[in-house]
UniProtKB/TrEMBL annotation:
This is Cupin domain-containing protein. The keyword Membrane does not apply. Keywords: Metal-binding. SUPFAM superfamilies: RmlC-like cupins. PANTHER family: OXALATE-BINDING PROTEIN, SLL1358 PROTEIN. GO terms for molecular function: metal ion binding. Gene3D superfamilies: Jelly Rolls. CDD domains: cupin_SPO2919-like. Residues 46-117 form the Cupin type-2 domain. Residues 1-24 are annotated as: Disordered.
Length: 154
């Protein structure tokens, strides 16, 4: 198995969320380690969240499991049950179909790094718990999108 050079892995940053929902996530950055390894059944990404940056809006997935592991820093995990502090070595998992919106927020003064692992399912869809937005299926085929909860487009 070839070693993955994380510095050479494909990089991404920002968000595709429509305004104003994009604001807390605009400065997030990640490296697509799973893509660098040629993985197709699940994704693995190394995220860097600067102070004030969120991993996402609070959301849940219909068909995808998601797992996060904190490598460095301190983050606030926000779910329907409230807030928990996650520090280096802490982890959390979110089973597909569980309607418990989640996100990570960096409220500290230092950068945080997290490893995010999730399944890849083109039938996945879900909604954002705190805002009027849902995401539609087809993320991996390039047919994804965001809509209001009543189905109207952004």
């Amino acid at each position: 198995m070839p070693k993955i050079d994380k510095d050479a892995a494909p990089r991404s940053s920002g968000t595709r969320y429509p305004p104003p929902h994009d604001e807390p996530c605009k400065l997030r950055e990640w490296r697509r380690l799973g893509d660098a390894a040629g993985l197709t059944q699940f994704g693995v990404s190394l995220f860097r969240l600067a102070p004030g940056v969120w991993s996402s809006q609070r959301h849940w997935h219909s068909h995808e499991d998601e797992f996060v592991y904190v490598l460095t820093g301190e983050l606030v995990l926000v779910t329907d049950k409230g807030e928990d502090i996650l520090r280096a070595g802490d982890c959390a998992g979110f089973p597909a179909g569980q309607r418990d919106g989640h996100c990570l927020q960096n409220r500290s003064t230092d950068d945080a790094e997290i490893l995010v692992v999730g399944s890849r399912n083109d039938e996945d869809h879900g909604e954002y718990s705190d805002i009027d937005m849902v995401f539609t299926s087809g993320r991996y085929s390039g047919k994804s999108g965001y809509r209001h909860k009543d189905g109207s487009p952004y």
